Amino acid sequence: MEGFKNMDPAQLLAEVDRAIISILQGGQSYRIGTRSLTRANLTELRNLKTELEAQASKDSAPGLIDRTSVAIFDGR
Q1: Is the pTM value of this prediction over 0.70?
Q2: Distance between CA atoms of 13 and 19, rounded to whole angstroms?
Q3: Domain extent listing, the chain
């Protein structure tokens, strides 16, 4: 985890995307002989991705309200 301290949200987001793809392509865990590997929890990765996307968009577009839509209704 030490190497991740110097990464900005956009870089971390790319790493999270790679981790999600690894899980989707290869499964949550696997075993080779007597050794087994369990990857990070997919739900936790998706939650982290949402947080990082919000941070990255906030950093790239200061002054805007995150996750907000605007609708204009003309007439009735």
Answers
A1: no
A2: 10
A3: 7-59
Quote the CA–CA distance of 19 and 21 in Å, as a whole number: 5
Cα torsion 33, 25, 20, 8 to 10°: value is: 90
Q: How confident is the model at residue 71 (pLDDT cuts 50, 70, 90)?
A: confident
Phi-psi region of 16 (alpha: psi -120 to 50; beta: other; left: phi over 0): alpha
Are 66 and 54 within 8 A, CB to CB? Answer: yes
Q: Residues 39, 20: contact at Cβ < 8 Å? A: no
Instruction: Report whether 71 contacts 49 (CB < 8 A).
Output: no
